Amino acid sequence: GENVEQHPSTLSVQEGDSAVIKCTYSDSASNYFPWYKQELGKGPQLIIDIRSNVGEKKDQRIAVTLNKTAKHFSLHITETQPEDSAVYFCASLGNGQNFVFGPGTRLSVLP
Amino acid sequence: DARVTQTPRDKVTEMGQEVTMRCQPILGHNTVFWYRQTMMQGLELLAYFRNRAPLDDSGMPKDRFSAEMPDATLATLKIQPSEPRDSAVYFCASGDLVGTAGELFFGEGSRLTVL
């Protein structure tokens, strides 16, 4: 089955700096890659996603890149703000219609 | 404002007791997932349903866990008997998965503590 790895597990950045979180997946049939943000005490919430026919997608300060050949995708957050502090999960969706999540990255944005 | 509703939000029980968690997915969504979240395991898939039919429950300990969807407005996850290692936050998520993509909407979770 699909296996999703995510690095780093924790990340601290200064406010205003950029943050990058990387994920790899194993199933070449996977074709949809969302990123979820989980704030304390809440359920994860979708922040951006990318399909396999696209290499990059941007939404304001957030961007996601996908390299299908290498089977990895990354989340980029620019000009980080304290409210970006949360746990971020990458995921992949394959033909089985089963979302497999990475283990998560705890991002701390230091003022 | 459509949302996934889970009950109870918090449950403390003693080992050996039966626990039932309930989820009301967003109306019209065709897929419902149950995930378990612990500090060590991240988001672990337990089971999921498509149009109320169970598609995969390989992530569940079959001897004690069961998941059902008696109707389109209710999904249940039952643990009998519960054990301390079941302590975790259980999330229900629903989505209208069309083709090969779709957003999952998560509930706020049910925090289970088994003493």
What is the general shape of chain B? globular
Helix/sheet category of chain A: mainly beta
Number of helices of chain A: 0
**Number of E-state strands of chain B:** 11
Order of helices and strands of chain B: EEEEEEEEEEE
Low-confidence stretches of chain B: none
Q: Quick recap of the structure?
A:
The complex is a heterodimer of chains A (111) and B (115). Chain A has 111 residues and is an all-beta fold.
Describe this structure in words.
- The complex is a heterodimer of chains A (111) and B (115).
- Chain A is built from no helices and 11 strands.
- With 111 residues, chain A is mainly beta.
- In chain A, the strands form 2 sheets. In chain A, strands 2, 4, 5, 9, 10 and 11 form a 6-stranded mixed β-sheet that branches. In chain A, strands 1-3-8-7-6 form a 5-stranded antiparallel β-sheet, with no helix packed on it.
- Chain A is globular, with a radius of gyration of 13 Å.
- The model of chain A has no long low-confidence stretch (mean pLDDT 93).
- Chain B has 115 residues and is an all-beta fold.
- Chain B has strands at 5-7, 10-13, 19-24, 31-38, 42-50, 53-56, 65-71, 74-79, 88-95, 105-106, 110-114.
- In chain B, strands 2, 4, 5, 6, 9, 10 and 11 form a 7-stranded mixed β-sheet that branches.
- Chain B is globular.
- At the A-B interface, strand 4, strand 5 and strand 10 of A face strand 4 and strand 5 of B.
